[in-house]
Amino acid sequence: MRILLVDDEEAILRSLGEVLKDLGYEVATALDGDEALKQVAALPVDLVISDVKMPRMDGIALLSRLQAQAPDLPVILITGHGDEETAISALQEGARDYLRKPIRVKALLAAIKRVQDQQQLERLLVEERDKLVHASRLASLGTLAAGLAHEINNPATFVKGDLQLLEKSWTIIRQVLEDLPPGQVKNPQGLAFVMQEVPGLISGMQQGMERIIRLVREMSLLSRSEKQDTQRTVVDLGQCIEEALQMERHVLPPRTQVQKVQDTIQLQTRADAQQITQVLMNLLSNAAHALERMPDPTIVVRTRREADWNTIEVEDNGAGIPEEAKPRIFDPFFTTKDVGRGTGLGLSICRGIVQDHGGQIGFESHEGKGTRFWVRLPALA
After folding, report:
1. What class does CATH assign to 2-103?
2. pTM of this prediction?
3. What is the DSSP string of 45-94?
4. What fold is seen in the domain 233-378?
């Protein structure tokens, strides 16, 4: 904490400064209000302790100027015995506290502690307010996602069925066209173009429709509008890891080394095995994406028992998560992947699944060095 002492008496500045320095505070001094304003403008200051009675600019005038220059900077006023009424009026103008001369060390420390406690409380209030705003936005987003998923699902299913019918029909049409005698084909080049391009067009439309349907499914999971009635059973987390690795092997970059560092005891929890496997598949998929341009791609999957928790870690030596992206990494629809390569729902859904199982999920990441995601789930006794 950096404290600026303001007093026109050098002896008071020296004695108070020495006391505060001995207590571990960083101290700066100013002999008048003008010098104090210059120091506040030039250097970071956490607290100003100022005398009231000073020539040219008294403490109350300094307080007023500081409120305009640095509104959040706390000020404690020091008063003489006859200045108490003035100090009380200054409190009404925004001073945090006041002390009477002669100053006692315990009273000074108590006043500083009150300022620190108030600042901490203000920070907590701001954090809680931001959390409430964020939760409100997520709730609105979940409602929107539920509505969109419902509206998109029916036509998407209809189009998917038509594409399957078109694919079967094209097989028949192609056979008919191939059997046509050359003399009956009026535009051989056009027919050859159609024969070559149509299969790719059908395949592209099917892939696009599968992407739409996957997005709808993820939006439904996000909004919890389609909660499945699943029965949780005793699950072997080692088996979930093996299934996730098997399912995701095709997305791993070539030459990727997968290392497993497992606890010697069997890790079990009560869970929906399919959902836990889905979480691990998503973490492995994200790791694979981060390793695409790495010369020596490596993924390490660790498991261990810690008191009442089973911990699973998925670590890669990839590109890492940019600092500016870390606060939003679990937000719905936020992604660091290129356009068209991710919906931004995977980690949000993972967090929902883990929290729904009474667990925790988090990560550590350093740009250029890699990322480690961890999942903690309650362990069976």
Report:
1. alpha beta
2. 0.47
3. -SEEEEES--SSS-HHHHHHHHHHH-TT--EEEEE-GGGHHHHHHHHHHT
4. Heat Shock Protein 90 (3.30.565)
